[in-house]
Every structure is written in structure tokens, then in C-alpha cells.
Amino acid sequence: MAENNSENWKDLCNAAVEAQDSNELLRIINRLCEALDREKLARPALSPATKPNKKGLSTAASTLG
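^ thats the sequence. predicted structure below, dont judge the formating
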């Protein structure tokens, strides 16, 4: 798998499954961690009022009735 900035975590997970040796697996896992960090930074944090509750509804919607 060629290294680039557009790697997504799903592709890296697939590459980890196919890794042939422990050094290759370690490199892929490190890239996977970086990709997950980038994705986390790219997503806006949800406020507590918009996080889903146990029933899958947002807490704001569940207070409506």
C-alpha cells in the first residue's frame, strides 16, 4: 500500500490483516493511529445536547415529550 495523506482507516485495517511480517504490521498500525487521529480532528465534537442517548435519540429530542 502506497503511503499518502488520503489513507483511510478502513484501507489500513485491511492492509493490517494482509501484513506478512511484524515490522510491516507495526508500520501499518502506526499509520492507522495517525489516520484515526486525523479523522477525529476533522469531526466536530458533539455537544451533550446532541449526543444520542441509550435509545438512539438525542437528549434534546428526548426531552420534548
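The helical segments are 9-18, 22-42, 59-62.
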